[in-house]
Automatic annotation (TrEMBL):
Transmembrane segments: none annotated. Residues 1-240 form the ABC transporter domain. SUPFAM superfamilies: P-loop containing nucleoside triphosphate hydrolases. Keywords: ATP-binding, Nucleotide-binding, Translocase, Transport. This is Phosphate ABC transporter ATP-binding protein PstB. GO terms for molecular function: ATP binding. PROSITE patterns: ABC_TRANSPORTER_1, ABC_TRANSPORTER_2. The lineage of its organism: Bacteria, Bacillati, Actinomycetota, Actinomycetes, Pseudonocardiales. Gene3D superfamilies: P-loop containing nucleotide triphosphate hydrolases (3.40.50.300). Pfam families: ABC_tran.
Length: 254
């Protein structure tokens, strides 16, 4: 995937300006930065989730395998099937564990054995052994970490290429967070992952490349999100090229 000259508006408000990014296959890309710098806004542009926000407008180019996903003939539902999303707070449906995972394949009309699809997704999310004997139980009975892994299973059940994760561990304890991080690394064997996180240690642990965003005042005094630096994670955390990156990483601001 790639982003070129991306500008995002909410009504007349320019939320993010002039973003250029490229996302590698089989990699984890982390987006970090202080609150309000546009990280989640950019993430939601990558599978057209901002289409669901009243007044949101996206300018620039967002391409998936070279195809503009905002093109006039592109089906936004198909975009979201190929580019799945896991949200900040675990959000299982008020259904059984099985029906949560089966939901996507059912609504998209996927062919094949549904039981096998559900099992494969749960195994892919490292959850099968914990839930295989209670698939008909309500998903709300799972722990927070299990619910988040269930949401990951639900995302991969439709066979996406890319998984977007918006602060996927912020509501979890350290043990559950560690499991999700291990899972993310394992999933890169089949998927590309793009994660927004406020946890810089997490970005340093799991990502291949890191994009640092900040927000600065425009001529009217309104704060606008912008990309400061994008490089290999070891460069961003070890020898960044921009003083603003170094100040954020070292805790001098943000």
């Amino acid at each position: 995937m790639a982003v070129e000259d991306l500008n995002v508006y909410y009504g007349d408000f320019l939320a993010v300006r002039d973003v250029d990014l490229q996302f590698g296959r089989g990699e984890i890309t982390a987006m970090i930065g202080p609150s309000g710098c546009g990280k989640s806004t950019v993430l939601r542009c990558l599978n057209r989730m901002n289409d669901l926000v009243l007044g949101a407008r996206v300018e620039g180019l967002v391409t998936y395998h070279g195809i503009d996903i905002y093109g006039p003939t592109i089906d936004d539902i198909e975009v979201r099937r190929r580019i799945g999303m896991v949200f900040q707070k675990p959000n299982p449906f008020p259904k059984s564990i099985y029906d949560n995972v089966a939901y996507g394949p059912r609504v998209t009309g996927m062919k094949g054995n549904l039981d096998e699809t559900v099992e494969k997704a749960l195994r892919g999310a490292a959850l099968w052994d914990e839930v295989k004997d209670k698939l008909k139980q309500n998903a709300y009975g799972l722990s927070g970490g299990q619910q988040q892994r269930l949401c990951i299973a639900r995302a991969i059940a439709t066979h996406p290429d890319v998984i977007l994760m918006d602060e996927p561990c912020s509501a979890l304890d350290p043990i559950a967070t560690s499991k999700i991080e291990d899972l993310m690394i394992e999933l890169t064997k089949e998927y590309s992952i793009i994660i927004v996180t406020h946890n810089m240690q997490q970005a340093a642990r799991v990502s291949n490349r890191t994009a640092f965003f900040t927000a600065e005042a425009d001529e009217a005094g309104k704060r606008v999100g912008m990309l400061v630096e994008f490089d290999d994670t070891k460069v961003i955390f070890g020898d960044p090229n921009d003083n603003r990156t170094e100040d954020y990483i070292s805790g001098r601001f943000g």
